[in-house]
Specification:
Pfam families: DNA_pol_A_exo1 (PF01612), Mut7-C (PF01927)
Number of strands: 14
CATH architecture of the largest domain: 2-Layer Sandwich
Radius of gyration: 33 Å
Shape: globular
CATH superfamily of the largest domain: Ribonuclease H-like superfamily/Ribonuclease H
GO molecular function, one term: nucleic acid binding
Number of helices: 33
InterPro entries: 3'-5'_exonuclease_dom (IPR002562), Exonuclease_MUT-7-like (IPR052408), Mut-7_DEDDy_dom (IPR037432), Mut7-C_RNAse_dom (IPR002782), RNaseH-like_sf (IPR012337), RNaseH_sf (IPR036397)
Protein name: MUT7 Exonuclease
Helix content: 40-55%
Organism: Asarcornis scutulata
Length: 694
């Protein structure tokens, strides 16, 4: 808006006896609301709001204000959304009689203006005094789901009520059309957009967003579990791609003690197996005889005490015969390392973080079968030539947490993914990184930091594009056609992957031998695919400059980082190695522990406590603090920042030279402290020890 217009508007206000009434006169006669962008009415209203701060005497009260509020409420029902907040503020609608406001919203509602009624209710915070079902259901029918979510967004009690209502609508036999008839103007809603499947998805999304206990929605949960059961039966008895042990484990955890699900399990067993198998499961679930079908109840009477292993034996023999038809891991079992302790991790660190190294990465997690929340990674597989490292992520993270060094593992993963000199192979990398971020908050945003990454899923699409027909492998005794990575392995290496362990419970310890072989194969096959594609890309329909086209070029930020690293290069251990001769020949002047003040990033709390014991003036970020807060404290209080990993690159640019130091995360707090003291030439005396401890 031009300065001239602003001045004209202000002169107009100054010349009016009652500027608030004058604004309403303008708005009531306004005709420019339906156009795009800000209207003249909006600019006049915004300018009045600013002008009133300089001239508080124009503010009205008592009966005069009430009359103005009555007029403005009529305008709010039809004005653009961007006028709501300024008008509510100018006419102090939050102080208006609550019953009067509720009555006005009710009038809009009964007129069929459901959206306008909801928006005004949110702005005036009227939700606690309204019926959540009455207000939200028309929004759902009108496909205004975001507005419905905003309506309950700040009220946990209303969130629970809304979820319970939606869950009721998901009951078998519930007729949604009957509800629609209750609301004016909603008889023509799109039935195909509002069905039980869509409602179920909505409920799960809201459970996740509002962090509500899923037990609040039994209908939706039971239906999802029933779909999981059907899927498990399909995988086991139709596709035949799931082992008996995996299948049993998942069926047990899905059904639990829920009698409704147990009943459906028995019906499925009768359909896919026989009465004897159904009776054994009824016995395993301790199901009362009176709720069992007659044939199953009779069979239960005949069962002997000893456990029959015939079916399991048959399954094992079938699987053993067919192993030769699948990709075989070409390295000895001794070269698969299952790592559960940080001390064991060091060998992996040294092998993997080598410039020029080619590393294949894969991850496994317990199948969620569509339940609430993102999957948390249970196993991280890292393969290099002739070796595979299986990282027990939950155990390693728990150990680091107990030792007060939870930053160790994230730092290693960050080093690996952000190093452009190391080629990282994966299949569907973005999904893997998303799951990593859900497992460890410190790894959030890794997808933006990654360099030197090759996603073989992209290559697979190119390879498939060059094929005229995708093969079916029934002639080789494999009942189902291969897909995904298994199909790429088949096409490039000659045999598909054995995916029978894919849906294992990867959280359960100890892992079975079959799981370990599967996990190692899933990662190692990527190395072999990459090697073969690089040797002869043309035979797979790929460009001859395969390596250049696969590895993404470093971004501008990455190139800037390379320039930076000529002076300060993070070594594999994390220490900032100074390349400047000037710095190595002239160490900083000695300083006493009492004079040395630092701020420790939240991943270095163990180091912070140790330095404080030595008499150093230490401030530590809390776990929930953003890393950038360290720079703010450092500037305000003249402290040195101690950090580690990727935050170093951000923080060191926000403070003076030499005021930010990256610490080696692979070492314990004592070694880290010695590193800091030596770098900054800090002298600790006996008097300093515990001098700051209460």
């Amino acid at each position: 808006v031009s300065q001239q217009l602003k001045e004209e508007i202000r002169r107009g206000f100054a010349g009016l006896e009652d500027p608030l009434a004058g604004l309403l006169d303008i708005l009531e006669s306004s005709t420019d609301w339906k156009g795009k962008g800000h209207s003249l009415g909006y600019y006049i209203t915004s300018e009045l709001q600013l002008w009133m701060k300089e001239h508080p005497a124009v503010q009205q009260s008592g009966m005069k204000l009430k009359k103005l509020q009555t007029r403005v409420l009529r305008i709010l029902a039809q004005c653009p959304a961007n006028l709501l907040d300024p008008l509510i503020s100018i006419y102090q609608l939050h102080t208006a009689d609550r019953n009067y406001l509720l009555g006005h919203v009710s009038h809009l509602y009964h007129r069929g203006d459901y959206k306008e009624a909801a928006i005004l209710s949110i702005k005036l915070k009227l939700q606690p005094d309204q019926d959540v079902e009455k207000m939200c259901m028309p929004l759902l029918f009108q496909d205004k789901i975001n507005l419905m979510e905003d309506y309950v967004g700040e009220y946990p009690e209303l969130q629970c009520k809304l979820l319970q209502i939606l869950d009721t609508w998901c009951e078998p036999g519930f007729n949604i059309r009957d509800i629609a008839r209750q609301y004016q103007g909603l008889s023509r809603y799109k039935q195909d957009k509002l069905n039980r499947k869509m409602l179920s998805k909505l409920v799960f999304r809201l459970l996740d967003r509002f962090n509500v206990d899923p037990a609040l929605c039994p209908n939706v949960i039971n239906q999802r579990h029933l779909r999981t059961l059907n899927y498990l039966f399909y995988k086991r008895f139709v596709e035949k791609t799931m082992t008996q042990e995996n299948w049993t484990d998942h069926v047990q955890s899905t059904v639990g003690e829920n009698q409704w699900l147990q009943g459906h399990l028995i019906q499925l067993l009768i359909s896919y197996c026989d009465l004897n198998t159904a009776a054994r499961w009824a016995q395993r679930c301790n199901m009362p005889k009176e709720i069992l079908p007659n044939g199953v109840a009779d069979e239960l009477q005949k069962l002997k005490i000893q456990e029959s292993v015939e079916e399991a034996t048959k399954a094992e023999n079938y699987e053993e015969i067919n192993k030769k038809d699948y990709y075989q891991l070409p390295i000895p079992h001794a070269n698969i390392h299952f790592l559960q302790k940080w001390e064991e991790m060091l060998q992996c660190w040294e092998k993997v973080l080598q410039p020029g190294q080619i590393v294949a990465i894969d991850m496994e997690w317990r199948p969620s079968f569509g339940m609430v929340g993102k999957p948390r990674v249970s196993l991280l597989q890292i393969a290099v030539k002739d070796e595979v490292f299986l990282l027990d992520l939950p155990q390693l993270l728990e150990q680091a947490e107990m030792e007060g060094e939870k930053e160790k593992l994230p730092y290693f993963i960050q080093m690996l993914y952000s190093d452009a000199a190391i080629t990282k192979l994966g299949y569907g990398i973005s999904g893997d990184l998303s799951s990593l971020a859900a497992t460890c908050f410190a790894l959030k945003g890794m997808d933006k930091q990654s360099q030197g990454v090759v996603d073989l899923l992209t290559v697979d699409k190119q390879v498939r594009g060059s094929r005229k027909v995708e093969q079916s492998y029934e002639d080789k005794g494999i009942r189902q056609p291969e897909k995904g990575l298994s199909l790429l392995v088949q096409h490039v290496l000659g045999k598909p992957l054995d995916k029978t362990e894919q849906l294992s419970n990867w959280e359960k310890r100890p892992l079975r031998e079959e799981q370990i072989i599967y996990a190692a194969s899933d990662a190692y096959c990527l190395l072999e695919i990459y090697e073969k594609l690089c040797k002869d890309p043309a035979s797979f329909g790929l460009n001859s400059d395969l390596t250049k086209s696969l590895v993404g070029k470093p971004t501008i930020k990455a190139r800037a980082k390379k320039q930076l690293n000529k002076q300060e290069v993070p070594s594999p251990c994390g220490q900032q190695c100074k390349g400047s001769e000037k710095e190595t020949s002239r160490p900083p002047a000695p300083i006493s522990a009492k004079e040395f003040s630092v701020v420790c990033d939240n991943m270095l709390q163990g180091l912070g406590r140790y330095l404080r014991c030595l008499g150093v003036d230490v401030r530590m970020l809390e776990n929930e603090d953003d890393h950038r807060k360290a720079a703010e404290i450092a500037r305000q209080e003249g402290r040195v920042i101690l950090t580690s990993g990727l935050p170093y690159q951000t923080l060191q640019s926000q403070v003076g030279e030499g005021r930010c130091f990256s610490v080696n995360c692979s070492e314990k707090a004592k070694e880290q402290a010695l590193q800091v003291l030596k770098h900054f030439n800090v002298h600790v005396t006996l008097e300093d020890i515990f001098s700051r401890c209460q």
